[in-house]
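Hi there,

I know you've been waiting on this one. I reran it after we fixed the sequence typo, so this is the corrected version. Both the input and the resulting structure follow.
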Amino acid sequence: MSKAALSRAIIGFLATAILLCWTTGCGRVHPGERAIRAQPTVNIAFMPRYSLRTMTKRYIPLVKYLDRETDYDIRYISAVGYSGFLSAVEQADAEFAFVNPVAYVTLHKTRGAYPLVMTQEPDFAGGPPRATYRGVILARADSGIENIADLRGKIIAAAPQIAVAGHLGPVALCRRHGLNVSQQATVVGCPTQEDVLERLQQGRADAGFIREDIWREAALSGTTAIQLSPVAFTEAYPGWCVCAMRDTPSAVAQMVKRALLGLDWDNPNHKTILRASGLHGFEEANDEQYNGVRRLLDEIEVPY
């Protein structure tokens, strides 16, 4: 055999041996060392409640926590805005989604989604944490708007139509008071609810539809330089949920559910994760809790 042929044979043998080690797991794990293994990938889609940069800052600690507490490689999936979110869920074939009530009832229809847990959120008005939230109609203090009737002919900033507290709830509330905002006011769509606040601050809108907690959090942090006054509040809606899809293996769903319910505000490490996410914790949820949202959508004739 020539030297060249012998070299090729040796290289081929070594390559085969290395491949076998990778695929059969040969090699020794020393006592006290953690075995290195490939983890199955699980995709969780996070609905863009905030801007992309804020979303990453808020939820990556939660993703890392789930990665540690489960046997899975948890992957974060999202979109730039509300409008592209459901498409992102489909394209990623996500096993789970962290979504608002409208997105949940839509995924329940299209993907057989069911809720695992519901968010408990801090009450920035000073009350105890709650698993519900509501919308608020805000007006600039210099706008002359004191009640819903005063919105007639005004410019209103609002989140996309899929937002419950930042769009649908306030629209329904205005209708109940005799004001059809789509015909009797100018509604300007914003990518996120942060953008609603920004537009109000910049004087490019007279009023805005937004989640109450997002407004109160911004007010407490001092990021709202222009005084904004609440005109009216919507009813309370069930909190956001983490839902599993019809095809998600039950064992995987239960493991993720246990990890989320295991987050404890009194645990300093858990508290850091929860505070970053703007949450107080999670509690168990069921589909019937979202029937009120279905009735809201039927009331204002929004298909889902």
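Quick highlight: The first strand starts at residue 41 and ends at 46.

Best,
R. S.
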